[in-house]
């Protein structure tokens, strides 16, 4: 990792407290908490400066690094050990790659992801009202007053699949498969979930992402293997 933040000036006005960092990042990442920030520091994803009294102080570069880490977790379900390797490669001036050929773009400076109305969702996905309703009936999209970017990505994918003759009703099993995977993850988290402290909750969230990422690797491998037999 590049020279640590601890070497920076600890009294400059550009440095932020944990509370100020949360105020900047919570609109995009509502689950971010002081314990999660400390957990990311423990995993050496960020190295804030320290005052003489031991308080953490974050630079603007630290905040952007945290935004990148949290975006990679949220958008790509990557475990922290892979994210840390990626950041180490960036710090060394190299152009790292991620498993599965994932391309990471720098997160936007604009706050929070968009919320789309039903009509906006349909229009931006290039879909129609019937396809959205079929997706909701197949439990592929949860009905809501406002929809997220995830819902938009799913509906766009369904538009493309429909062109190949694959309808939402053909994908009903996807929801059941996702619920089974969730059950596996919850079972694996039981030992940590029994602890009620904030640090354990942060570790449980990270372990859940790691397990989800490994399940995705297995699923993708099985699909590629099956495609090879076509």
Keywords, please?
globular; 230 residues; mainly alpha
Query: Based on CA inertia axes, which overall geometry fits?
Result: globular
Radius of gyration: 20 Å
- For the termini, the CA-CA separation is 45 Å
Counting DSSP E segments of at least 2 residues, the number of strands comes to 2
CATH C-level class of the largest domain: Mainly Alpha
**Pairing-aware structural class of the strands and helices?**
mainly alpha
CATH topology of the largest domain: Multidrug-efflux Transporter Regulator, Chain: A, Domain 2
What does the main sheet amount to? 2 strands, antiparallel
Describe the structure.
The chain is mostly helical and 230 residues long. The chain has 3 domains: 14-101, Multidrug-efflux Transporter Regulator, Chain: A, Domain 2, CATH 1.10.1660; 118-166, no CATH class; 172-227, no CATH class. The chain has helices at 18-25, 34-42, 60-76, 80-91, 118-125, 129-137, 149-163, 172-193, 198-227, and strands at residues 49-50, 56-57. A two-stranded antiparallel ribbon has the order 1-2. Strand 1 (49-50) and strand 2 form a beta hairpin. It is globular. Mean pLDDT is 82; it is low at 1-13 and 106-112.
């Amino acid at each position: 990792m590049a020279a640590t933040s601890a070497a920076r000036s600890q009294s400059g006005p550009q440095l932020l407290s944990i509370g100020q960092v949360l105020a900047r990042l919570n609109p995009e990442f509502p689950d971010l908490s002081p314990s999660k920030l400390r957990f990311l520091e423990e995993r050496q994803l960020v190295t804030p400066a320290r005052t003489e009294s031991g308080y953490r102080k974050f630079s603007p570069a630290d905040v952007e690094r945290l935004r990148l880490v949290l975006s990679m977790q949220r958008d790509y379900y990557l475990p922290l050990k892979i994210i840390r390797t990626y950041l180490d490669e960036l710090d060394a001036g190299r152009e790292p790659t991620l498993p599965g050929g994932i391309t990471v773009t720098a997160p936007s400076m604009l706050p929070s992801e968009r919320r789309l109305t039903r009509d906006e969702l349909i229009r931006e996905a290039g879909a129609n009202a019937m396809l959205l309703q079929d997706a909701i009936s197949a439990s592929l999209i949860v009905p809501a007053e406002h929809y997220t970017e995830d819902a938009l990505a799913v509906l766009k994918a369904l538009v493309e699949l429909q062109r190949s003759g694959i309808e939402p009703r053909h994908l009903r099993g996807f929801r059941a498969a996702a619920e089974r995977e969730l059950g596996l993850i919850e079972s694996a988290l039981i030992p940590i979930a029994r602890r009620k402290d904030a640090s354990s909750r942060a570790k449980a969230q990270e372990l859940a992402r790691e397990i989800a990422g490994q399940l995705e690797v297995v699923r993708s491998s099985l699909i590629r293997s099956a495609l090879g037999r076509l």
